[in-house]
Amino acid sequence: MESKIIRTMFSLLVTIVFATACSLPANSPTPEPQTTEPPTSQATAPATEAPITSDGGMPVTGEGLCANAYYPVRQGATWSYKSAGSSAGEYSFTDTISAVREDGFTLSTQFGDLTRTQEWACQAEGLVALQFGGAPAANLSAQNMELNLEVTNVSGVTFPNEISAGDQWQHNLDLEGKMTIAGQEGTATGNSQTSFTAVGEESVTVPAGTFNAMKIQVDTTMNMNVSYQGLAVPVAFSMTYNYWFVQGVGWVKAAGSGSAAGAAFNETIELQSYSIP
User: Fold this and answer.
1) Taking the CA atoms of the chain, what radius of gyration do you get in angstroms?
2) Half-sphere exposure of 160 (CA within 13 A, CB side)
3) Residue at 35 is within a domain
4) Which of 9, 134, 138, 141 has the fewest CB atoms found within 10 Å of its own CB?
5) What is the dihedral of CA 101, 35, 215, 133, to 10 degrees?
């Protein structure tokens, strides 16, 4: 019975972390006001210069290793989203690229009163998330429970430099950390495995506008072993989401389903506004 309670609590924590992991260094720039009007086409997306073209002929945004067709890496770029249907209830958040380096960047997420940062690497094959939804990887309190996970190893790529229909790739994280329930501490180790499949292009409409987007199916599985008060409890969590990415804009919509603590959920996240310097 106790192992079932631990499994249920841990699954709930993981679900909340996943739901809010879509995430300032000092002296970071202040984001511009979110006043973007819904564009009628990609050509009207805000930018201070025309996208450059990669060797493969696909327009990319950014410079050097950080240049990417579907995720514009620009310091000060902001995206505001709203979610409905998740196990965490309705919520809004804003992503901001708060720092850009030659070999990476920092993504900050403002979620209510909570600000989380996530470090990314820019590599030859694409953009790679180095952390699990924020630093110190994932840290979220829910009532009298807390989960804190650190990344010990990263493999694969999150956003390839270019994406075409039919492409498949993976991004994996090895994790370890602590969970606290009512002041009692336990440990957790395991991994998160994410598989991506580019389905193809289609039109999508969100509050920020109507876009021609690349639909990408994202399948995530998390397997953890939790030790708590002498009990070893295996916990598995999985979910499938579809994301819609727009060249020069980023991701504009996500919709998916999963289950935790015996309850299923269906979440939709839509881009409300964005600003890309």
Assistant:
1) 19
2) 17
3) no
4) 141
5) 50
Query: Is there a contact between 60 and 54 (Cβ–Cβ < 8 Å)?
Result: yes
In a domain, 41, yes or no: no
CB-count exposure of residue 98 (10 Å: 0-12, 13-18, 19+): buried
For residue 235, give the CATH number of its domain. Answer: 2.40.360
DSSP state of 29: P
- Beta bridge pairs of residue 240: 219, 257
The pLDDT tens digits for 229-253 are 788 878 777 888 999 999 999 999 9
In order of 88, 151, 185, 235, the CA distances from 15 in angstroms are 8, 18, 19, 12
8 A C-beta contact, residue 251 and residue 31:
no
pTM passes above 0.90: no
In a domain, residue 267? The reply is yes
* Closest to 254 in 3D by CA, of 273, 239, 238, 241: 241
